[in-house]
Records
---
Amino acid sequence: MLDGWKILVVLLVLSLTDYYFLTKLKNYANIAFSLYCQRSIALPEICRFFGIVVRMFYDDHNPPHIHVEYQRNKAVFDLRGNVSRGDLKSRTAVRLVREWIDLRTKLEFRGGHAASSQ
């Protein structure tokens, strides 16, 4: 009978230590996620359309790119429309972002060409 109680106590202690470990792990995961979210919030928002949020930081690493968020899915696009990281999980959203990038690069080129000809 005593051996059964010892086993029960050992199992109880092990379950408590596992619970403590999992709680710590969950806390660290929440901290890491909140830091990641703060990083994405800190990026200046350039445009918002159809639920798609486009952000860009002027002093970010090369190559130049934009951060896009759609329905809690995040992706990073280069300025040619290629996805370099992440996935929006919506072909329509990816197509709209690529069209937005094409429109912006055409407007920038047209504006730069007009400014250099004056």
---
Amino acid sequence: MAKKTRKTNRPNVSRDALERARREMQLVPAEPEAAVDAVKAAPTVARSPRKLVMVPRVVNLREEYAYVLQDLRNMAILAVCLMVVLTIMSLFI
């Protein structure tokens, strides 16, 4: 009988690249220059892991998705026009 192997749910990307992508997708660093200066000031022999302070990005959804509202408005106008055309055609058929 063949040996069963376990499937792992690990991504096919290096751990550093995955962590960097997750940070970029969710949060924006507050002050990258300050973080770099703190790293340069740290001693090279006994170096502790650095921790970046992350701040959530403020997004104005009305500006970000203005094109969606415009498309919805255009579709509503088209739907009303088609309903009027169908109503007029039903009177003559």
---
Amino acid sequence: MDAYEAKFGNLTILNYTCRMCKKSYALKVKTEDYTDYCNSGKLIQNCFPYLSAGERELIISGICDTCFTDMFKDEESEPEENMPESYEYPQQ
């Protein structure tokens, strides 16, 4: 994943190139939040609540929202007719 950052005081611009479609994206985040995300081990949604789920996914995986959705669109439309209504665990 191609990514680089540029810091401007309390603002950091994160530049990513999607691994799939090769489009470039620039995300503006608070420098304090980015530092916290990189160093604290906190969940990304807690560090960047103002970013969309798709923007956070780009930071995590390097895959843009459009490509990520396209990767899983067939799974969402599959019928669930083969799914059992319930499952009984074997007695031990």
---
Amino acid sequence: MPGARWRGTRPIIFDYVPSRRYDFITIGEVLEHLEDPRAMLRRILELLAPDGRVFITTPANAPMIDHIYLFNNAGEIREMLRTCGFAIEVEASMFAEDKPAARGENAESAADVRGVC
């Protein structure tokens, strides 16, 4: 979206009227900065072509001062994606600490969850 800007606390993506739908959308490290990440996910789904894909990254269990929405674990991210209408095709998690993957699932270690839906 050339020239997209923030208007107050609402990103212009919600007011954007595309001339077409998109085959691929990337959204990296954004959802945790939104008060309502579900609204953003639903909007992305509206912008995708019927066979479109989206690549999403977002951290779990990563409290930061600018993270308005805190995902406690990867399961919460998966559930939000599913309830917003996405089907996860590929998923990968990268952990901030040298911990087994199962521990990240239980929110004992920060994880960056990446997936294609």
